[in-house]
Amino acid sequence: MPLERVEPESQTQWYVNSLDNEENCEVSEKRIGWGARGEVFEGKFNGKIVAVKKSTNCDGGEISKEFEILKKLKHRNIIEFFYFQQKSTFSLIFMEYCEKGNLSDYVRANVIDKTMWMEWIRQITDGMLYLHENKIIHRDLKGPNILINSNDILRICDFGESRGYIESISQKMTFRGTFNYMAPEVLQEKKYSKKVDVYSFGMVLWEMLTGHTPFSKCNLHRIIYAVGRGILTLAFPPNSPRNFERLIRLCVSYNSKLRPSFKYIQSQFDIWFMDIMDIENWEGQCNEWHEYSKEIQYGKICKEDPDEKLYVKKSTPRILFNPQRKYVRSALELRRRAVLFSSSSSSDLNETCNSSPSDFCRYCRARSSDTLLLYTRRRRSGSPFSKSRSRSNSRPQSEDVGMKVSNEKPTKEDGNI
């Protein structure tokens, strides 16, 4: 029976019954998930409940080739694939159905038992090590792509971005996947290796620790720019397990050569979990980490303007090193001054100096303080703020600023022309 399309009032759903005579395949109208490349419905394969992923506008030949490779993968922590069906405008993949949903939703809604929490980290490591040993890079490892079955076994899924690789050759990665979990070399569209999966694994560990998606309050452009240049990094609760935090920091290193392999991570589990085993009130500690991470997501790093501390302090020396970025350098300096002098407007601070930031100009600090003092005095007196200022090479004196408050133009006798 051909594919029938049903369009209810709310959303488009699909119904497929007995796609062909070779396999007994059924797809119900119950949608259980969706993503950028398609939707996932509940179905049956040879009488067994399965998940059916429907993808549209795709290269059927390429997907068919990938499916044949992935079908050969047999591992406890890799999703099991059953059948592939290609049509003219869409394709269907029948795979294992996991009743408990994905890891991201689960850690946000539940406090995982400490033993299970550590076991799940082992399972993710084992699954990714198996993929790398079979020369496969996942390229889109994240919490939503890690499913939980009825036996609390994790299954790594969604291999739509996966590729094979040659150990000695790096490849250039297209701009695909989820930006929050992407490695810096991917965001910069540079050549990549299997270490991109290690970076994403570190992001998943941070998500399991804090219960939140990394950089969830940062917009797309900010993640691409700041993470791609090593400016925006993860923040940790002050009482987080030191050894486990060290593991995450190693995995998300800006330099891919510093990231450990999954084989090394697997061999050092006793060290990574040493501090965690000593925690007695695990549930209370997890709740404390989750609450603190809410402040991180909304405040310290990923607030509306993260340039306040981390973004500016780390990016200013890097940008100043390149003289061609003088316009970006000037913008960063204005943002820095807006933090230091929050009572004054950015247009007033723009008149303090156009040469270089205060860390590299010995006159900028005095000019900034004088401008702020002048601005405050004029606000109190109700006089308009004059944007024309003297730019002599001598350091301005704070006691002279109050004498220039009047609206009268300076004369030659004043010595300021």
UniProtKB/TrEMBL annotation:
Q: Where is the composition biased (Low complexity)?
A: 382-395
InterPro entries per the record? Atg1-like, Kinase-like_dom_sf, Prot_kinase_dom, Ser-Thr/Tyr_kinase_cat_dom, Ser/Thr_kinase_AS
Q: Which GO terms describe its molecular function?
A: ATP binding; protein serine/threonine kinase activity
- The residues forming the signal peptide are none
Pfam name, any one:
Pkinase
Please name the SMART domains in this protein's record: S_TKc (SM00220)
Record-level GO BP terms: autophagy; regulation of autophagy; response to stress
Q: Which GO terms describe its cellular component?
A: cytoplasm
Annotated stretches, region: Disordered: 380-417
Q: Where is the composition biased (Basic and acidic residues)?
A: 397-417
Protein kinase domain span: 26-273
PANTHER family linked to this entry: SERINE/THREONINE-PROTEIN KINASE UNC-51-RELATED, SERINE_THREONINE-PROTEIN KINASE ATG1C
Name of the molecule in the record: Protein kinase domain-containing protein
